[in-house]
Amino acid sequence: MQNKEKYANGQAVYQYDGNKLTYFFKDGKVKALGISDNNIMEGEWKFYRGTGELWQVGHFLSGKKNGTWIRYDKNGQVEYSETFIDDQLVKK
Questions:
Q1: 23, 36, 56, 76: most buried, per Cβ within 10 A?
Q2: 1 within domain boundaries
């Protein structure tokens, strides 16, 4: 988790809703969202470009990349897919 809670313009950097954690860009658009368990990323996370388009979907286990990660291009098409185990790339 980041130390800074607000950008200079007053926009929240992140917000918790139960165990759901959402990070924001300076303009208030969603930057990333997923589950956080004791400040550790867990399960599926989605990451967005500053323009609002989905950029990546990936999975964490105990804060480490684990499972399939898919990156999308600016047209929403799959750019590539990778598989991680314990933060180590095992298949691209």
A1: 36
A2: no
